Predict the 3D structure of the following.
Amino acid sequence: DVKVTQSSRYLVKRTGEKVFLECVQDMDHENMFWYRQDPGLGLRLIYFSYDVKMKEKGDIPEGYSVSREKKERFSLILESASTNQTSMYLCASGESRRTVEAFFGQGTRLTVV
Amino acid sequence: GDSVTQMEGPVTLSEEAFLTINCTYTATGYPSLFWYVQYPGEGLQLLLKATKADDKGSNKGFEATYRKETTSFHLEKGSVQVSDSAVYFCALLSGSSNTGKLIFGQGTTLQVKP
């Protein structure tokens, strides 16, 4: 089975802190994605990557950055956390650019106080 | 741009009732369509998919048919169980996409009561 693991289930951070969310997949997938999930808004794509050291902006990249130094790991960085970044963050991976299935991690519930 | 619209929730049903969750989409070309399910406390998992018009995806008693003429992909199940309580997301992958990027609807919460 494909496994996508997010480093934390719950995080509480203070406004202005730099926050790192880590995601690791074990299936040698090319594609990796970061989404945020908010009630009534569904999932919105923050950033994605289809190769090591490659990254592309999604629909809501403002206030975020990403890093992909190794194929299996994709990190989401909140440069200076704000309360409007309180959300559920979901990481996903996919086999290739034309994949028809994405595999999701269990999510990280981030609260910024 | 491409988009997905789902019916508003929550949907509350009694066990063994018939379920329909509506999903319509806007897309250029020929997208692939998906239903993902999120059980409480978990990430999303693929429930079913359809990659071309008139295809029917099915899994675990759930079905959805890709209707190009009505740009719809409604999810149905003949007899729901308490264990089906979850959030359901309709999604599309653009036919012109070369990134594997999915576009999701807002999600519909289903609650099934015994």
Observations:
- The mean pLDDT of chain A is 92.
- Chain A touches chain B through 30 residues (CB under 8 Å).
- Residues 96 and 102 of chain A are 10 Å apart (CA to CA).
